[in-house]
């Protein structure tokens, strides 16, 4: 007859170390099969799992694998012994962590189904068993320890559950292991105390070997007397997980949502009902869904009309005190100030002025090679200061930086160092002549990579402050300029090239921005550089002049004739003033003579 014990999770831990001889292992197979044949196997009755172990652990089949004896017997007959060491502690740990887990087929702990482990071994464990066995017992696993022949009694007692005289068995040989089988079946097949109806459980009675316990239906909790059951109020205890509302019912609960929300598929969270998806909102721009219904919204820069649906562009200029000196223009979600043609918007974004009060980041790159010579280098510094004179130097206006190069490059002062024209001019005069070679390409690279960085004082690109580079040279470069001349223009730097003496026209044009006639200046001698100032002033600050000043070589015939005409006119004016002065002196002499 079969044991009618009620639900039970039973796991056998079988020692298959090398000390278990083949015929002894066959006896152990028959032992397992005989016990299983006497159990009431089924998903709601007894579930059985088998583990074999030696130096490692192997699951023969877990608790949830088979619910027919035939399948279990077939798996048991197919076991191949591991034939290694005896790591009993490792096997117990595996049972705790894996074999009795819900994932392997064990029933949840709240179901209060008894968990029983039967350990069969023939030797002394090669690892520690006391601590891991105590851990198993603390987790509610009842352990039977069966030792055969050479088994260590102390280890068996350390593993088994109390009382030890009912859970520890030692037999002289594998042939006698059936004695334990009979005892074990007697323990499992004791009287079913739930069957006589005297248990007093309000809901459920769960039979266990030699005992029973009461349990409750789902949604109820066992009372202090361990017999009666009371409804679990999940809503009051806050364990429901509902996002909005918890609705208690008999032994259970449901979640609900506030108005304008719908219950999610998980039956706990709430999502806003998308009223806009119904397609009846008639909004000109955007529809926004709220719990109480749809509302229309306008894109940035527009205002919603009284009908709540149409949108009208917002006139920011009429709605704010814009402070524009010339004209305010509404633009998207804001406004901007503009200036009339020929005038430039100031850094404050409101006022307009001419170039002297405009804002530019200007870096001058001067040739300090030995071909320039010390006396001419002083003329170059004076020329730089003449350029500074027509700029409005200030942190908000024009910022000026200076770089000198020869065989190497040196930043004399960066853009952000000086805030007035006088400070810049004094710094220029203090620059010392470098001499050596002419590495113009190296200087252009320094200009692109360093001089216009924010760390050097350049303003962020977002402020749209023009970046101007002015390269001054007196000869052919000793390195290639093509790459970095092109890179400078790609970076948006407006490039001017000023050549003197033996400067190469092709290199000047390659350095300068287009059109070259506005960005290239040349003087045959250092002493005649002043005529280039007007051209630079007109093109760096084009609103200072009208049109484009055409530069001609002073050696051209037309230039010579023009110069002669200007010189003769100046001499004529001086001669006229000298005549007037002579007449005045004669008049004074006559007055003195008359007084004497």
From TrEMBL:
Q: Which keywords does the record carry? A: Coiled coil, Disulfide bond, EGF-like domain, Glycoprotein, Repeat, Secreted, Signal
Alphabetized Pfam families for the sequence? EGF_CA, FXa_inhibition, Matrilin_ccoil, VWA
The record's section on InterPro entries has: ECM_Assembly_Org, EGF, EGF-like_Ca-bd_dom, Growth_fac_rcpt_cys_sf, Matrilin_CC_sf, Matrilin_CC_trimer, NOTCH1_EGF-like, VWF_A
GO molecular function annotation: calcium ion binding
Keyword Repeat in record:
yes
Q: Where is the VWFA domain?
A: 9-188, 361-536
Compartments where located = Secreted
UniProt entry tagged with the keyword Secreted: yes
Q: Which GO terms describe its cellular component?
A: extracellular region
Chain ranges passing through the membrane: none
Protein origin, superkingdom: Eukaryota
Predominant location category: secreted
- By its UniProt entry, which Gene3D superfamilies does this protein fall under? 1.20.5.30, Laminin, von Willebrand factor, type A domain
Per its UniProt record, what SUPFAM superfamilies does this chain match? Chicken cartilage matrix protein, Growth factor receptor domain, vWA-like
Protein name in UniProt: Matrilin 4
What species is this protein from?
Vombatus ursinus (Common wombat)
Which lineage ranks, top first, belong to the organism behind this chain?
Eukaryota, Metazoa, Chordata, Craniata, Vertebrata
